[in-house]
Design goal:
Blueprint: H1 5-29, H2 42-47, H3 49-59, E1 67-70, E2 74-78, E3 88-95, E4 104-107, E5 114-118, E6 126-135, E7 138-147
Antiparallel strand pairs: 1-2, 2-5, 3-4, 3-6, 6-7
Length: about 150
């Protein structure tokens, strides 16, 4: 067989296509490159976005916002002193961007102005915290990216 320009071009195309197929197959099979969506119900949460904006604007009218501290027992979320703790209802959602199996939700039930999330529930690293609560007739939301 004689090696000419046509044969060289065909071999170059076959080599290039093989190279591309190798990387496509290795990227789809390798678990290291597997990424999930941020949330399972992305479009449903997009519809709730306007409601969250209203809650955030309402939370900005508070004299004192929520704040969190890291203690030996865990993460302590402190609600405003001007609110009666028994009238505060809602949920706390902690989202771990690196591992969705660590995400969890907890209901708010307070006897004082502090809510404790135990240290055993949290690993060190980045967390997104979302506190969605109601006080009497008003709804509020608190969102922060924290490093625990």
């Amino acid at each position: 067989m004689k090696f000419n320009w046509g044969t060289g071009i065909v071999l170059a195309f076959i080599g290039f296509i093989s190279f591309i197929l190798y990387f496509v197959i290795s990227m789809t099979v390798n678990k290291k490159y597997e990424h999930d969506l941020v949330t399972e119900n992305y479009y449903g949460q997009e519809l709730e976005f306007e409601n969250e904006l209203h809650k955030q604007r309402h939370a900005q009218t508070l004299e004192k916002d929520l704040f969190w501290t890291h203690t030996e027992e865990g993460l302590v979320i402190t609600f405003p002193e001007s609110m009666t703790p028994s009238d505060i209802k809602g949920k706390v959602f902690l989202y771990r961007p690196s591992n969705k199996q660590l995400d969890f939700e907890s209901t708010i039930s307070l006897s004082n102005h502090n809510l404790l999330i135990p240290d055993k529930s949290l690993l060190g690293g980045r967390w997104n915290i979302k506190v969605d609560w109601q006080y009497k007739e008003d709804s509020y939301i608190f969102k922060r990216d924290i490093t625990y």
